[in-house]
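User: Teach me something about this protein's shape.
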Amino acid sequence: MVRQKFTAEFKREAVRLLERGDKPATQLALALGVPRNLLYKWRDAIATDGDQAFRGSGRRSPQQQELAQLRRQVARLEQKARS
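Assistant: First, the predicted structure itself:
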């Protein structure tokens, strides 16, 4: 199986469309040809890393990975609190 690669612009546009809410996530994912959970991962990455999301594919240190994970968790909890 070949792993697909998507540009940063594609990811940002997909998240913009997801947040716009014109289509359910499942329909949007099918239209874009990506798994639905990937849309949510991209959205979380943007929420956590902002403009730095999708910049290069450099390896993160364990501390950077943990920090990113904690930021995603905080973003999800804040989103739940707003609901």
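Now, about its shape. The radius of gyration is 14 Å. Residues 8-82 form one domain. If you'd like, I can walk through any region in more detail.
User: That's plenty for now, thanks!
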